[in-house]
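Archive maintenance. Older records in this collection stored only the sequence; we are now back-filling the structure field for every entry so that each record is complete. The fields below show one back-filled record exactly as it appears after the update. Entries are processed alphabetically, and Aerobic C4-dicarboxylate transport protein is next in the queue.

ARCHIVE ENTRY
Title: Aerobic C4-dicarboxylate transport protein
Organism field: Bradyrhizobium erythrophlei
Length field: 438
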Amino acid sequence: MTSIESDRAIQGQEVAARWHTKPYIRVLIAIAIGALVGYLWPDVGVSLKPIGDALIKMIKMIIAPIVFLTVVQGIASLDDMGKAGRIGLKALIYFEAGTTIALLFGLLVVNLAQPGVGMHVSPASLDTKLIESYVTQSHEQSVVGFLMNVIPSTFVGAFTNGDTLQVLFIAVLFGIALQRFGARGKPVLQFVEATSKVFFIVIGMIMQIAPIGAFGAMAFTVGKYGVGAIVTLSGFMLTFYAACLLFIFAGLGLVARVAGFNIFKLIRYLREELLLVFGLSGSEPVMPRFIAKMTAAGCSESTVGLVIPTGYTFNLDGTCIYLTMAAVFLAQATDTPMSIWQQVVLVVVCLLASKGAAAVPGSGFIVLAAAIGATGHVPVASIALLLGIDRFMSEARALTNFIGTAVATIVVAAWEGELDRARFSETLDNPDASKLSF
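Back-filled structure field:
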């Protein structure tokens, strides 16, 4: 054996020995084991819920300070305050265009596939007791109420409530004030930068136990809801998952190509976060690491700080696809005819209602109830039909939302000239070599 062959053999052995130590591999294994435990021993799987909840709570406790510090640092570091306004405006334009397309895309798919036709479900035969809390919460959904809620009652209240939009609102004001303070504010900015690094180190520590949390969350999901509901409504589930995949790889893939990058490379770069989103059925727990990875990839701190937190509320592509598909599916399943005009009204209502949806499990179900109730056409009681599979649907919604926000961040950064192209290309080509802030 030559020295070159020997070196290659040694490298191959090292790779084989290290593959199981990669974070995303550990998460994938944990999810698989969790699903198996939930399937074989449902009661055990349900009892493991606190493990997943503990991880989510640990991450959520520092989301607010990380969002605050990141946004303040990004804005206060800007020489041109007009840039922050442009970034925000461009992000909102992109969000509105993207979510509108997602709503129309879901409407097109469900009308072509017609997964609910032939089910002949009677709303009166469904148990609506389980959905009463969702319907009650849906009545609280309103545009005015949502906008007023962006303003916190107190400065500290935004952090104790864990409301990302309220924290973002305060951070923008604080960042602008700090930037206008000029040279005298430099010590404060340095303190913000140092504190931000400490919080990201904390996130790195918490992420070491991410596989355990993903295991508990998946074991609970499978153990609690089982596979019976999936089999019963497999047609709609498969149609929805196919729609999300098509939207990601065709729709967002086209946007990525126009913006000058490959959607597959981006997904490979974010694979660990995507697995956690899938395992935890929500994208909010990975927000701090998401912010760090997009910054490490070459997007400016100001762009990342403004686009990602805002995108978690305003850029919910997966939720939008689900809303129109689920509403029309329920109309088909209950033999409720819907005209083109009624479907257009549905799109408008969903466009407004979706803005109040948070990136956490169950929010899509609440917004669906609000949208159906507002249109007044499809029986609200029919949403009980989807209750058993909503947790599984939330995984596809969360993944699509997450990838959509990642693409939006890159597009807005490139649009504003805040994307380091060389660094970005190198990072996507060699994702394992990228350096994070923690």
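Update note: The first helix runs from residue 3 to 18. The radius of gyration is 22 Å.
Entry marked complete.
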